[in-house]
Amino acid sequence: MSEVVKYFYKGNEVDLIIYVTSEKAAKEYLKDPAPSKLADVVEVFKVFTNADGKGNEGTLGEASHAQLENEFGKHKKIEEIIDLILKEGKPNGNQGSLASNYYKGQA
């Protein structure tokens, strides 16, 4: 299994998290970012937040469309949002297997 890494974005309205395949893959992407290369970096094309919308701990659920619009503006594609989170966020440590780390008990 790949070693998934959580990327944390400290937002103005809500804090967001994405999962990338590895920190190495994220660094390579950031050297020459292009939305067409995201598939090689992103573990799952979803953006997550916790129940409070602040911080990077706790049980995560998928961020709502409204939360993403409030943070990034209307008409942004998920690829654009993930690209921004990679560019402006920071890695938050090795997370092991993705299946055991997101939607705990909900998968």
Give an overview in words.
- This protein has 107 residues and is α+β, with helices and mostly antiparallel strands.
- It is 26% helix and 20% strand.
- The chain has 3 helices and 5 strands; from the N terminus they run ββαββααβ.
- β1 and β2 (16-20) form a beta hairpin.
- The protein starts with a strand and ends in a 13-residue tail after the last strand.
- Mean pLDDT is 83; it is low at 96-107.
- Residues 4-93 form the Ribosome maturation protein SDO1/SBDS N-terminal domain.
- This is Ribosome maturation protein SDO1/SBDS N-terminal domain-containing protein.
- InterPro entries: Ribosome_mat_SBDS_N_sf, SDO1/SBDS_N.
Dominant shape:
globular
Helix content: 25-40%
Measured by DSSP, the beta-strand proportion falls in 15-25%
The span between the termini is 17 Å
Structural category: alpha+beta
Low-confidence stretches: 96-107
Sum this structure up briefly.
Helix content is 26%, strand content 20%.
Itemize the secondary structure elements and their pairings.
Elements: E1 5-9, E2 16-20, H1 23-31, E3 48-50, E4 60-62, H2 65-72, H3 78-88, E5 90-94
InterPro entries: Ribosome_mat_SBDS_N_sf (IPR036786), SDO1/SBDS_N (IPR019783)
Domain Ribosome maturation protein SDO1/SBDS N-terminal: 4-93
Organism: Nakaseomyces bracarensis
